[in-house]
Specification:
Layout lengths: L7 E10 L1 E3 L4 E3 L1 H9 L4 E5 L4 H5 L5 E8 L2 E9 H7 L4 E6 L5 E7 L17 E2 L12 H16 L2 H24 L8 H15 L16 H12 L10 E3 L4 E3 L6 H8 L3 H13 L2
Parallel strand pairs: 4-8
Antiparallel strand pairs: 1-6, 1-9, 2-3, 4-5, 5-6, 7-8, 10-11
Helix pairs in contact: 5-6, 6-7
Length: 285
């Protein structure tokens, strides 16, 4: 029976060697290592300590446990079979410590001594319980993972799914813009810009391809959340029954009885309103 690419593969091996590493700002004695191991809890595995797992919305495995043999700290991790096959025999694990010398992060890496990374490890390839075929390492680990994900996404997502994704992005963006306008955070003529901005945020969060939760909803990442926070924190405007229409030369209020000064004051509250006033002034010069 063929193994599923997402089936977990267990790896065990050396992940740290006790000693003093001034270039990394860390030293670890046997007593300190035992304390760190006793306080350790399973951690998701990042890639090269880049934080890419937060962008993609999932980890690439877990560092399950640690133990010590002499001056070596050993670890057990699980990663998907597709990743184990991709990495071949060049799997390294890098640990990140806080100032209290607790293990607070773990990452897969091709270069255990990453430049400028706040890690202290000289790990060797763990021994796999399942045989792995070595593969030449020609690019960084992050680039290899990204390329593999792009290939799998292209193979698994037919044209009809792409059309569905585009439609979902359009609907989600339209809903976001409408809710922002209805909450009086933006004026109606700003709806199109808001919709385009949210669509770009969705694409940025998903690496250029819309991805979905199990319930079919679009996955929103840090860019979308930052945009939502910005809208939530924006004060609501105090227009009563105004309707602002965009035209080629100016923006006008469809309302009776609004004094000119009051109208201008309201327009000054937004970038587009200020631009409309500027054009109006230039028109009368």
């Amino acid at each position: 029976m063929q193994n599923h690419p997402d089936e977990p593969v267990v790896l065990r091996g050396k992940v740290f060697e006790l000693g003093n590493y001034p270039d990394r700002g860390i030293s670890l004695s046997e007593q300190e290592a035992d304390q760190a191991i006793s306080e350790f809890a399973p951690l998701p595995l990042d890639l090269e300590h880049t934080g890419i797992t937060q962008i993609l919305g999932h980890s690439f495995g877990f560092l399950n446990r640690l133990w010590r043999q002499g001056r070596n700290v050993l670890g057990e991790l699980t990663i998907p079979r597709w990743l184990a096959q991709l990495l071949g025999g060049a799997v390294h694990v890098s640990l990140a410590f806080n100032r209290a010398k607790q293990v607070v992060g773990g990452a897969l890496t091709l270069q255990p001594r990453i430049k400028d990374a706040r890690v202290a490890t000289f790990s060797t390839p763990p021994m796999a319980l399942a045989p792995l075929e070595p593969e030449p390492m020609k690019t960084t680990l992050e680039h290899r993972i990204r390329a593999w994900l792009e290939r799998r996404q292209t193979q698994d997502q037919p044209e009809q799914d792409e059309a569905r994704a585009a439609e979902s992005v359009e609907q989600a963006s339209a809903t976001f813009a409408s809710e922002a306008v209805e909450a009086r955070k933006f004026l109606p003529f700003e709806r199109a810009n808001l919709q385009a901005l949210f669509a770009e945020a969705l694409m940025a969060d998903c690496g250029g391809l819309a991805t979905f939760n199990a319930d079919g909803s679009l996955i929103e990442g840090p860019v979308c959340q930052a945009l939502r926070t910005m809208v939530d924190q924006r004060p609501a405007h105090d227009l009563a029954a105004e309707r602002i229409e965009t035209r080629e030369t100016e923006a006008t209020f469809a309302i009776e009885g609004v004094p000119t000064k009051r109208r201008d004051d309201l327009l000054k509250k937004t970038d587009l309103g200020r631009e409309a006033l500027k054009r109006k002034e230039q028109k009368h010069l």
